TrEMBL record:
Its main location: cytoplasm. Consists of 3 domains; the N-terminus binds the ribosome, the middle domain has PPIase activity, while the C-terminus has intrinsic chaperone activity on its own. HAMAP family: Trigger_factor_Tig. Its EC number is 5.2.1.8. It comes from Parathalassolituus penaei. This is Trigger factor.
Amino acid sequence: MQVSIATTSGLERCMTIGVPAAEVEQKVTAELKKLARGRRIDGFRPGKVPPAVIKRLFGKQARYEAIYQQMQQSFFAAVQENNVKLAGMPYFEPTVDEDGKDLEFKATYEVYPEVTLGDFAALQVEQKTAQVSDDDVEKMVDTLRKQSTRWSESSEAAASGDRVVIDFEGFIDGSAFEGGKANAYTLVLGSNSMIPGFEDGLVGAAAGSEVTLDVTFPEGYHKEELKGKPAQFKVKVSKVEKGELPVMDSEFFKSFGVESSTEEEFRAEIRSNMERELKRALRTLTKNQVIEGLKAANPIEVPAALINQEVDRLRRQAVQQFGGGQQFDFNQLPAEIFKPQAESRVVVGLLMSTAIEAADMKPSEEKVSELIEEIAATYQEPEEVRNYYLNNAQQKSQIEALALEEQLVEKILAAAAVTVVESSYEDVIRAANANQSA
C-alpha cells in the first residue's frame, strides 16, 4: 500500500493511497460470493451458477461494496501507521478504479491542531468573593413568602402589591402593534414586569373599570422597532385581588421541603442553601474567567468537523429542552444559531484537555467525593444520591471529568495573577445566571 499526505488548507489534509489490484480483486470475489449465496437464478441449480454469470449479474454491486470497504480499511490502517490525529470522518474519492489496475483513491479529512499553551502566569483573573448576609437571608425569606401569597378577590380599588387580571391592547400612532395585546393577563402591581408607567397607571382602578395608559417604551427595550416609541394602551380590569402573606409555621416550612419546627431553624436552612448556591456561583464565575483567559492567550484553529458535531449535539439538546420529541428533526434548526457556542465549546475542550494531558493530571478521590457530596446535600436522601454516583460507572465518570476541570482551574489560579474583588450575594448570583444563559 502506497501512501502520501498533503496539506490542502489549514487543518485539512489529503491522503492519496494506492492498493494493489490483487488485494482489491480478493475483496470483489468475496463480495460476489456473498451476494450470490442462496440466490435462485433461472436456468441454474443452486450452487451451480457459473462465475461469469454471477459477475455479470452482481459485478457492479460487488465492486462498489468491495471498493468502499477497501478504502475504509486502507485509510484507517494508514492513519494508524502515520500517527494521524484524525478529527471527524474522511471523504473518499476513487481516482483509479478499473478491473485489473491498482486502486488509487484520495481521502480528504481534518486533523486536530497542535496546541502549545502559554505560561499560566501571564493570565489575568478577576476572582469575586462574597458572603451571605442577614439582609440576604431576610430578602430570600420575604421572596418565598410572596411566592406563597394567598390571593382573594376584592371589590376595592387596586393598590401597589395587589394582583389584577386585565385585558389590554397597545397602539402606536393609532395603530395596534404586534405583541401588544393580551387577554386575562395576570399582573402584580409594583412587580416592575411591565414598561414604566403601565403598572402605576392601574393603581386606583377597580374591577370592571377601563383605563387608557399613555406610556413610552424604554430606549433599551428588547424589540428594536419599539425602542423609545410613545404608546397608548387600552386596559380593561376584570379582577382585583388582595394578597395575604402566609404565616411562618411548620406547614409553610414544609412547602419548601424544610422539616423545621421553628422560624430560626427555617432561616438557618435557607442560609445553608444560599451559601451552597453562592459557593457554586463563585466557582462558576472563576472558572469562566480562567477559561476566557485561556482562550484569549491561546488562539487556535479548530476542525470544522468537530464544530459540526457540537452543533448537532446542541441542536439535539434544544429539541429535548423544548419538548420537540422524536417526531421533530433537529436538522431543521439553523446551524448558524448554534455555531458560535459550538466553536467556543470545542476550543475550550481542546485547550483544557491539552493542559490536563500536559500536567498528567488524574481526578483526585478527594475532589470527586467533594463534588458528589455537594450534589447529595441538595436532596432529602443524600445517602441514596451518594450510592447512585459511586455505584454507577457512567455517572461517576462524568463527576471525574468535572473534578479534573476543577483541579485544572485550581492549578491555573495558583500560577495566574489573581485580583480578588469583593461583591454581594445578589450580584454574584445574577452574574452566574447571566453567564449560564449566554
